[in-house]
C-alpha cells in the first residue's frame, strides 16, 4: 500500500491562501491554478489548497476538526518559531504553552485552519 503524501485543506480563496502559505513556508507552490494550489514540503509531502466550492463530492460539513502540525527539533525551536510567526503578525489561537507533549502553540490560516507547532516525539 502507498504511504499518504498529500494533505488537502478546503479553502475559500486559493489565491489568498497561497499568499499566506507562501509567506509561512518561505517557498513557491509547484501548482497554482484558479481552484487548486499545491506546495511541495520536505520529506515528499505536499500541501494542497482546494477551493471549497469546487470540491467533489462536496463535504458534508465544514469546520475545523483537525490540525496541520509542524514539528520542529532543537533546543527552544518551538519558542523561536513562535516568535518568528508572532512577529509576522500571524493570528495566534493558542499562545506558547507547555502541554503533556511539550512546548506548543497554534496559529490560524485565512480559513481558520489550525496550524500547531510542537517538538517531535523523542
Automatic annotation (TrEMBL):
<feature type="domain" description="VOC">
    <location>
        <begin position="3"/>
        <end position="120"/>
    </location>
</feature>
<dbReference type="InterPro" id="IPR026275">
    <property type="entry name" value="Glyoxalase/dOase/EhpR"/>
</dbReference>
<protein>
    <submittedName>
        <fullName>Drug:proton antiporter</fullName>
    </submittedName>
</protein>
<dbReference type="InterPro" id="IPR037523">
    <property type="entry name" value="VOC_core"/>
</dbReference>
<dbReference type="InterPro" id="IPR029068">
    <property type="entry name" value="Glyas_Bleomycin-R_OHBP_Dase"/>
</dbReference>
<dbReference type="InterPro" id="IPR004360">
    <property type="entry name" value="Glyas_Fos-R_dOase_dom"/>
</dbReference>
<dbReference type="Pfam" id="PF00903">
    <property type="entry name" value="Glyoxalase"/>
</dbReference>
